[in-house]
Amino acid sequence: MEENASALEQCDYMHLHDKVIEQVQEEMPQEEILYDLAELFKVFGDSTRIKILYVLFQSEMCVCDIAQLLHMSQSAISHQLRVLKQAQLVKYRREGKTVFYALADAHVNTILNQGLEHIEE
Amino acid sequence: MEENASALEQCDYMHLHDKVIEQVQEEMPQEEILYDLAELFKVFGDSTRIKILYVLFQSEMCVCDIAQLLHMSQSAISHQLRVLKQAQLVKYRREGKTVFYALADAHVNTILNQGLEHIEE
DNA sequence: CATTCATATGAATAATTGTTCATATGTTTA
DNA sequence: TAAACATATGAACAATTATTCATATGAATG
Predict the structure, then answer these.
(1) By the 8 A CB rule, do B34 and B76 touch?
(2) B47-58 and A18-27 helices cross at what angle (nearest 10)?
(3) What letter would DSSP give residue B63?
(4) Which tens digits make up the pLDDT trace of B64-93?
(5) Strand C close to A113 by CB, under 7 A
(6) Which of A43, B9, B20, B72 could covalently link to B16 via disulfide, CB atoms 3.0 to 4.6 Å apart?
(7) CB-based contact A111 B115, cutoff 8 Å
(8) Sequential DSSP letters for B70-98
(9) Which of A6, A39, A111 lies at the smallest CB-CB distance from B111?
(10) Integer distance in angstroms from the first to the last C-alpha of chain B?
């Protein structure tokens, strides 16, 4: 978790040209952005959540239906939907006792597809 | 970790039409694919690794240069490069004592960019 | 308003993971 | 071949996390 220094004893000289070093520091998104980006991908990094996203890609769905489709407990799904909701990957609407979840936007699908393309080499 | 059942007491009836259920089961990638997909995104789900990828996007680079640029220890970077290598996100070549790492393919950049687009709403 | 149903949530636990430290491996050079 | 350097790796530890269990909240219905 610590991304602190202690970078005391590194290699003798850098292989990089000054120009590259400068460019890296210039092109590199801000620390906070990079952190948020990692947080976002962390959300995709769980197979239960991936399944939920795929299921919602077919249709809006209530918590209980998702649980049954994935053979998992209502509580587990609800906890994960919370994570997806916080990452703004899903949205929801209430209808009486029931809460329906749906994908929030199109990025979700693009990201999943790029991932698929990669693992299929 | 357990994605087992215990889905005994769910809601009384399903809101979904049979057609949707059928389609979900049809369109859903195989269990193993979904697992691999989660594994891939898990790799993106760490800010140190994200930084390494961004840095390598500028230029091929040796372990030690990366460590200095990111103000982290050689060991930490090496461990993370191992993870990136296993996920086939980076490739490497040896030149004497030095090992140079580079991005493996173009998907990496697409995935990162989609992620960025999402967090920038 | 009490009951029932759907969902959310807090605490607890087991499993996973990122970094450090110490050390091993592999390569060059004196 | 010994020393120096660049990288890799194993063990240990702290921190994070996914699920379960028990229970709370919120809405409909008798």
Answers:
(1) no
(2) 130
(3) H
(4) 999 999 999 999 999 999 999 999 999 999
(5) no
(6) B20
(7) yes
(8) HT--HHHHHHHHHHHHHTTSEEEEEETTE
(9) A111
(10) 31
The secondary structure element, H or E, covering residue A109 is: helix A107-119
The reported pTM is 0.89
Question: Looking up tokens 């980076």, which residue turns up?
Answer: B90
Tokens standing for residue B48: 């140190």
As a whole number of angstroms, the distance between CA A40 and CA B120 comes to 11
Are the beta carbons of B68 and A15 separated by less than 8 Å?
A: no
What six digits make up the tokens of B16? Answer: 């979904």
Q: How far, in Å, CA of A63 to CA of B37, rounded?
A: 23
Element (H, E) at B22: helix B18-27
pLDDT single digits (tens) A16-73: 888 888 899 899 999 999 999 999 999 999 999 999 999 999 999 999 999 999 999 9
Q: Please say whether the beta carbons of A54 and B33 come within 8 A.
A: no
Joined together, the tokens standing for residue A38 give 């990692």
- Chain D: nucleotides below 7 Å from protein CB are 5-11, 15-23, 26-28
Instruction: Name the residue among B27, B68, B115 with its Cβ closest to that of A41.
Output: B115
Residue A119 contacts by C-beta under 8 Å, 6 or more apart in sequence? B33, B36, B37, B40
DSSP string, A30-76: PHHHHHHHHHHHHHHS-HHHHHHHHHHHH--EEHHHHHHHHT--HHH
